[in-house]
User: Fold this.
Amino acid sequence: MYLPDFEYFNPDSVEEACQLLLKYGSKAKAIAGGTDVLVKMKKELLAPEVIVGIGQLSQLKKIEYVPGKGVVIGSGVTHNEVQNSKVLQEKYLSVSEAAHQMANNQVRNLGTIGGNISNAVPSADMPPILIALDTTAKIVGAKGERTLPLEDVFAGPNETVLEHDELITEFVIPDGSFTGSTYMKFGLRASGALAVVGVAASVQMEDGVIKDARIVLGAVSPVPVRAKKAEDFLKGKPAGEEIFAEAGVIASGECKPISDIRASAEYRKDMVRVFTKRALNKAANEGHV
Amino acid sequence: MSKEVSYLNMNKQYSYVGKSLKRTDILDKVTGRGKYIDDLKFSNMLYGKLIRSTEAHARIINIDTSEAEKLPGVKAIITAKDVPSIKYGLSPARYDENIFCTDTVKFYGDKIGAICAVDEETVYKALKLIKVEYEVLPAVFTPAEAAKEDAPQIFEEFPGNVNTEIHLEFGDIEKAKQEAYYVRTDRLVGQRTLHGFIEPHCAIAYWEGKRVHIHSSHQSVHYLQHHIARIFDMKEGDVRVTLPYVGGGFGGKVDISGVDISAVALSKITGQPVKMFFDLEEVWLNGRGRHGMDMTYTTGVTKEGKILFVESETILDGGAYSGLGVATSYYAGSLLNVLYDFDNYRFDAYRYVTNLPPCGAQRGHGQPHPRYAFESHLDHIAEDLGMDPIDLRLVNARKANTVTPNGYEVKSYYLTEANELARDASGWKDKKGKLPVGRGIGVGNGGFVTGAGFCMYRTDLPHSIGMIKVYDDGTHAIVYSQAVDIGQGSDTVLTQMAAEAMGFPYEDITICTRDTDLATLDFGAYASRQTLMAGWAVKRAGEDIKKKILIQAAEMLKVKEDGGYRSGKLMPEELDCKEGLVFVKQEPGVNITFAEVARAYFVKHGVLVGRGYYHPGKLGGKHKGAAVGTSPAYSSATQIAEVEVDMETGVTKVVGTWDVHDSGCVVNPQLLHGQVHGAFSMGIGETIWEKVTFDEKGKLLNGNFAEYRMPTALDMPHVDSLVLDTFEPNGPWGVKEVGEGATTPTLGCVANAVYDAIGVRVAELPLTPEKIWRGLKEAREAKEKEGK
Ligand SMILES: Cc1cc2nc3c(=O)[nH]c(=O)nc-3n(C[C@H](O)[C@H](O)[C@H](O)COP(=O)(O)OP(=O)(O)OC[C@H]3O[C@@H](n4cnc5c(N)ncnc54)[C@H](O)[C@@H]3O)c2cc1C
Assistant:
């Protein structure tokens, strides 16, 4: 319950941060809000000798709409900033709402969207909705930069494909054709509970017919996964409760959750069914909510 | 939303009693100026922690402290060999806890030793260097495992791992069985829960010559003083206990937690003040929360629902040591007869020791689980009889001025009125049986003792002593009492009472509590005792002052008589004193300030002191265990909850709650409503979410507020707190308790509401979404099978 000693760097730019990460290699850890890293350090699950602070970098703090590109969200934006962003509330209220459902006010005030993604916890709340909206992540390293679909950033529980000197600088939700999206978090109390199951859905509706859909499941596999069979099943079908219920059953069959202190695998599977159905209904009928 | 319905306590003309006056501690607490134990600092203070077992049941082969001792800054490390070999506990019949484990550790987290160093960081580093070698022994984690014939024996003194066994029988069960129209048996299970206060245990001790001064976070300065003196073979007068503000207790700070003993021992060795503190997880390891209970009730009733007999068996998961568990075991059965009036009752209980943290008292001591089980059982009986559940309770509710078969004298008791008012306020008649699937309403009854009739250890001491001192110039008064305000507001209530009794302004009184040197004896905050017991002592001290003031004033006031004046001839009985003014009752215009009179008294006699004494007298019957549950007064309460259950996910949302309390005269309505709100939060949490959980090796899994889920503000429903302003002849101004009793009906009413909503009884707490989901699924599958 005591923070071990470490050296702290406060770089002025992403480039400098990457250089520091390169220099200190596996001894170093980047820290944005610190709501994951500091907790782990106190529990002695992590003992970096060097900490590189990136939470103060103004480069990473923007949320803006760039015509032709989409909504750009800097990785250093806090959950409360995501929640309160006018741009997001207008374009993708579903993303703001997902941030609002996280943790508690104190943690939302510190924790960042970049930290939430990079921490790569299976129950994390931001990945499903962002993946459902085809979000990409811009990754900058000491040797250059690359852009990946967010879906491909996750490698396993607590693992991403990022190299040691790489940081995510921004997320882009591209201008797309989705007409509605939502994230439904199922936690075991109203606030301050991790997701037992999280389901994000996005749909492209045209005259009552589902042209395209994404269903992304959180907390039921090592990384956030798409229920692709259920997505395929929906394409071209008329929207309706029965269709969505059927998609729920298919999605439930696709996931392979584990049992833990919070819930059994059996229960999680059935909750995937319930929340897939509900999320699709909501996204189809209410837009981005 | 809160209302008072005053129809039982008619004569209310008080200046301070009965008013929601501002709490005495409010400014300190909202500004952060108030000091809690963690805020206290002393020069040269050392920091210490307990060394805890990492096995659930094991023999200690060796404790190697050599590496830790070499670490710069480490000042002392102690184990069993360095401390008195005396055993302690809270029930003198079962002192079974060693200061540090001598031979075997009995649960994961058991105390092996203590260490102190110059700062916290060094202590944590040193802890990691201590190596304990164990021979691991087979362990038991449930009463069922503990009861097996070949189960490992955890204590020599508890053969079969049975720590407490109770067999009580009143009336003639066999005869009642013959007469019963309907008999039903139900079995329900209540889980292990924890108090959930936010301030972990902590103690600071230092020696001043032969005396030791302990600052702690505790519920009783007296018990802590008594046990420290006993353990260290000292005179009680050589042990001073002082508490700063206490951040909650709920029963979890009555026991000796180990921070206290080890701070005393380590400061003796080092000659420096030593602060011993828990991390949050250690609060769970220290335990002393609610026992897990497995309860079976068989009840026979007449056609009209009158209870003829109850047979019950309760199995308690005690954890490693006794603590207050003997009393818990008795409490689990003893108060059922207070609530419901029936003559034939059998209560059997077995408290097993297991290799888990010890259980003890938690708000409502031993009551909430049995209340949950019996209130659920009653709802099934009502259903089977085709009766409204509230009607069934009205048929059986105890009345005032009766005596229970187990020997408790019940004076004021208005459970009938509580049921009726709760029923009407909640709109019960329009809801019960008429709500759509997934929505339900449920009722639960409860109540509690207002202070225990006996001290926890055997003594002839009075239960509370009050003292009030008036300042030399008469402008201010100090109230002394060792009553412990753990947040519930006893300082405020006692100050209101002193002001009322003296006839002196509330805002000109300071209260001095929580200090064995400065304040006068009170046993502390447990068994919902302070408002009545410390209240009597303070009231009598205040009346003593007033008596002296009126005598003095009689010499000073002049009344016009037959055109002339008479002086000094007034009799004290002709005077009264209120709100700082002494006046002639017949002629209130003739008056003088309290301060002037008090100053005159001081000039003539010296310090103006009032003294008050309280002892409840001899209470209760003669059978074994008769003492537990005796009390000068019993509160009663009815709660109703309305819930919405998501039939697909099993998620329960409590959408409305009503509480009607028969608490006697309510000294401070705001504080009562606070207790009721808190009780709902605690009770709803225990019904739906909370459970202390361990892995298969007895290691704690959820020692934090993220995974031990208590309700947040967002989970809380609207609370409608209603008061029956009743009068209790055994209480000062007619008061009774509210603190603990308020939690006792909650589990039952919420569980009954869930049953009403879904039509399936999930018979084991907590009613988590998954359990409800599974219950619904199994019911559906059973129905499908039947259909085929
Ligand atoms: C009480 C509590 C409740 C919580 N509840 C929830 C919840 O409900 N839902 C949920 O999803 N999470 C929850 N969390 C987890 C956590 O708050 C979030 O994951 C948060 O978004 C982490 O952000 P951070 O900035 O604090 O991360 P940090 O702790 O600073 O970093 C986390 C990890 O990400 C890396 N990192 C940070 N920024 C970047 C970047 N730009 N590029 C590459 N790597 C980076 C760090 O090196 C580290 O490995 C909770 C945490 C706490 C303490």
In short: The pocket of flavin-adenine dinucleotide is lined by residues A 29-37, 39, 54, 75, 102-103, 107, 110-112, 114-116, 118-119, 124-125, 162, 167-168, 194; B 706 (CB under 6 Å). Chain A has three domains: 7-53, 58-174, 180-284.
